[in-house]
């Protein structure tokens, strides 16, 4: 029975995350990022105890270029034209949490540890935030069918 509850909880969490993503896109909070899409699921041992879904936010734009030997990393046959700039940032959704802490009038003393100054008396979940976990960029030269990253 408990396994079923855990599965339902995961479904509810995933639904909440997708809802936040759709609301974020509909609100148009950031015009720079033109697309968001799920990428993969990964384990981040320093942050999370369970695998996290990794999303990607993408920005693309067309730009004019004029190649010179000093600027380009690899030789480009077409010395001028249009190229596509692509920037991607992978991120995970982290819950936005607010904790209310009650401070003790007299800190409690324990023999084998530091004295606590209070305790959590309430918490509130206020949606999710995008926590960036990487960065990538590349240029696509369509005339040469070449990607430079």
**Which percent range fits the helix content?**
10-25%
Distance between the termini: 50 Å
Derived from helix and strand composition plus strand pairing, the structural class reads alpha+beta
Beta-strand content estimate:
over 45%
The overall pLDDT, averaged over residues, is 81
Topology as a string of helices (H) and strands (E): HEEEEEE
Mass-distribution shape: elongated
Number of helices: 1
Uncertain spans, ≥5 residues at pLDDT below 50?
1-6
What does this protein look like?
The structure is a single chain. This protein has 149 residues and is an alpha+beta fold. It has one domain (31-148). The protein contains one helix and six strands, in the order αββββββ. The protein has one helix at 2-27; strands spanning 35-42, 52-66, 80-103, 118-132, 136-141, 146-148. Strands 1, 2, 3, 4, 5 and 6 form a six-stranded antiparallel sheet that branches. β5 and β6 form a beta hairpin. The chain is elongated. 3% of the residues are buried. Residues 1-6 have low confidence and may be disordered.
